[in-house]
Amino acid sequence: MNKRVLIISSAYMRLNACMQTLPGVAREAAGDGYDVMPGGRGVTAALTFRALGVDSILCSAAGDDMFGQQLYDFLGETGVDRRFVKRFKDSRTGLLLNVNENGRPPRTLRFPEANALISQEDIEAAFMSYPDAVYIQNELPGRLTAFAANLARNKNVPVFWNPCPSPGRRADPPQVRLEAAVLESSDVAAYCGVEPDEYSKFLPAALALASRVNAKYYIIRIPDRGAFIYDGLHTEMAGEYPSTYLDEDGASTVYGAALCAAYVKTDGSVQKAAQLAAAAYAYSSSTKGEITSVPAARDIIRFLKKDR
């Protein structure tokens, strides 16, 4: 029987627009193309769990509009348990508008819409799925993140906290004992004031993070170095795999979800989980797109064989 993970996060439709340059004020310019597809961190995480052989249960929200139906249908078609993706009447589905200007980093406009309507009652209902673990990002208001984490611990369900990078947005960490806190090195300083930008700072950063976040394991992904793992007493490094860095959009989410998936499947082997997550990140960041870069187990196996 597959392990079950409850993902408590957001769900969006994503509009990716490509153009040579943005027009000035009161001007217009022709774009090079666009596409519309499901996306966002919650959806990407749910797809990652499912692709790696874990039953993914998504607790999120959508509107009763056309986008909401497309999103709901997509989740069903991909095998994600969508019973707790609530369709809010007379509401619009969340939208991510990504503008990709030639030669510049993409700009993103985020419209939460139905995601802002999720309640504690909706989260409590999702626990009727009897998950083996709960996976929380930083996509919902802090009070809901705290409620979900407390509810999980009261039910003795391990909590994985993966606050994926969100420039300008920092969610307070849940004030409960976490099974694992999984962060990008660039985000660590925002929580503890120490940036692990060189080897001598890896342990001080983990110690500072541990003073703010209560977890069994702290996993800090450090680009081109691997993952620094700290359990309160011991440290170890998990290796990195080479990437072309074609498109890192979504790769951090894939990393956190892959680590959690491998951890619950191996009954708590954090080293094995970090190794698989590193391979998943390398695959995802070497593949174009967000949800299109989610690796299946066979993709990771092929990637690892190629790396030998």
Could you describe the 3D structure shown?
The protein is an alpha/beta fold and 308 residues long. The chain has one domain: Ribokinase (UDP-N-acetylmuramoyl-L-alanine:D-glutamate ligase, 3-Layer(aba) Sandwich). It has helices at residues 41-51, 66-77, 120-126, 142-154, 185-192, 202-210, 251-265, 270-285, 297-307, and strands spanning 4-8, 12-19, 33-39, 55-63, 85-88, 94-101, 107-111, 133-136, 159-161, 178-184, 215-222, 226-230, 235-238. α1 (41-51) packs across α7, α5 packs across α6 and α7 (251-265) runs antiparallel to α8 (270-285). The chain starts with a strand and ends with a helix.
Number of helices: 9
Overall structural domain count: 1
Which value, in Å, is the CA radius of gyration?
Answer: 19 Å
Portion in beta strands: 25-35%
Q: Mind telling me the CATH class?
A: Alpha Beta
Rounded to the nearest angstrom, the distance between the terminal CA atoms is: 32 Å
